[in-house]
UniProtKB/TrEMBL annotation:
It holds the Pfam family Dehydratase_MU. It comes from Brooklawnia cerclae. This is Dehydratase medium subunit.
């Protein structure tokens, strides 16, 4: 019996490279929360994140598109995400964003994103 393990779902627009989201995924990994990445044609990072949060057994999703990274929960409306920031502003910022998505799952205080 194989049950799907709980993950943070990360929905990424087709034009966003693996390298562009690598630090976000490292931040999740460092906090010990697994991620599942999928690629999509949807352009709206808000929609990507919202759909990812609804797909995630943990209720937290990340969307990456149009130079933005959006983190949200299944309980928030699509137009009001938990966090929205510029993707690839800095490696530290991207890593902290991934860590914060994991911390949201674990109900821990968030890291400062002012890098």
């Amino acid at each position: 019996m194989s049950e799907q393990r709980p993950t943070v779902c990360v929905r990424v627009h087709d034009a966003v490279s693996d390298a562009q989201i690598a630090e976000v995924l490292h931040g999740l990994e460092e906090e010990g929360v697994p991620a599942e990445v999928s690629r999509h044609t949807e352009l709206s990072p808000l929609t990507l994140a919202h759909d990812a949060s609804r797909q995630s057994r943990l209720g937290v999703g990340i969307g990456a598109s149009l130079d933005y990274l959006v983190i949200t929960t299944e309980k928030l409306p699509v137009e009001q995400p938990y966090l929205a920031l510029t993707l690839n502003r800095s490696a530290d910022s991207d890593r902290a964003a991934g860590a914060n998505a994991a911390r949201l799952v674990k109900r821990m205080p968030l890291l400062d994103l002012a890098n």
